[in-house]
Specification:
single chain; alpha+beta; 3 domains; 7-stranded antiparallel beta sheet; two-stranded antiparallel ribbon; 9 helices; 23% strand; extended; disordered N terminus
C-alpha cells in the first residue's frame, strides 16, 4: 500500500510488469506469476503497463485495474473479490478521515540528518519512474564533494542528474552557441545585402567563388 502526498515530483513505484506513477492518495497493488492488479482506494494514480502494446490509463478513486498473463488490462469500478480476499485484514476496513481535526494543526518537519551516497544508492539508481523525484529532493547534495564524485562516476545509471552536475558547462555551451548563431546571422546579412534592389558585384563574385554565406 502506498499513501502518496502531493510533492514537486509525485511518488511512484515500479514492478516487473507495470508501474504506478503520479500517485496522489492510497493505492494497493499486487503482482504474481499469474498477472497483476492495482486498486486506487483514495485519490488518483496512473497505471503504466510495461508489456508490449500496454496502456497508461489514469485511475480515480474506486477504480480497479487487473490483467492475467498476457491479456489486456481491464478497468472496473470496484476491486475483484479475489483481490480483496488476498488483501491483509488491516487493509479491508476504511479508516474515517481525520482531515478536519488536523487541518489547522501545523507540525514542524523533523530533520533526519545527513546521509551518504551509499545509504541512498539503491533509490538513486532505481527505476526511472521512482528515481526522478530525488533529483529535485536531493539537489543540494550535488554540492557535497563525496556525494558529487559518486554521482558523476556512475552517471550512466542516473543520467537525469547530468544537468544538475554540469549546469555551468551547459550554460557556457548555450552562450557560445548563441554567439556563434549571432555572428553567422550578421555574416549572412552582410553577404546578402542588396544595393538598389540588386546584389552588389562583390556579393555576386563571392557567391560564384563559394564564399560562406
Amino acid at each position: 500500500m502506498l499513501n502518496g502526498a502531493q510533492h514537486a515530483a509525485a511518488p511512484a513505484f515500479a514492478t516487473p510488469v507495470f508501474d504506478g506513477t503520479d500517485l496522489a492518495g492510497v493505492v494497493l497493488a499486487r503482482v504474481d506469476a499469474g498477472g497483476g492488479a492495482m486498486f486506487v482506494e483514495q485519490g488518483r494514480a496512473r497505471f503504466a503497463d510495461r508489456r508490449a502494446h500496454g496502456s497508461s490509463p489514469v485511475l480515480k478513486a474506486g477504480d480497479f485495474i487487473s490483467f492475467a498473463g498476457s491479456g489486456r488490462a481491464v478497468v472496473e469500478p470496484r476491486p475483484a473479490s479475489e483481490f480483496v480476499g488476498r488483501m491483509p485484514a488491516d487493509f479491508r476496513d476504511s479508516i474515517p478521515s481525520r482531515l478536519a481535526r488536523c487541518r489547522n494543526h501545523e507540525v514542524a518537519a523533523r530533520t533526519v540528518g545527513e546521509f551518504s551516497y551509499g545509504e541512498v544508492e539503491a533509490w538513486i539508481n532505481a527505476e526511472p519512474a521512482v528515481r526522478r523525484q530525488f533529483v529535485h529532493a536531493w539537489r543540494a547534495k550535488a554540492e557535497d564533494t563525496e556525494f558529487r564524485f559518486e554521482l558523476t562516476s556512475k552517471l550512466s545509471r542516473h543520467p537525469e542528474w547530468g544537468p544538475v552536475l554540469f549546469r555551468n558547462c551547459m550554460h557556457r555551451s548555450r552562450r557560445r552557441t548563441a554567439r556563434w548563431s549571432a555572428r553567422r546571422g550578421r555574416r549572412r546579412s552582410r553577404t546578402l545585402r542588396r544595393t538598389d534592389g540588386f546584389p552588389s558585384d562583390f556579393t555576386i563574385d563571392a557567391l560564384r567563388r563559394g564564399a560562406p554565406r
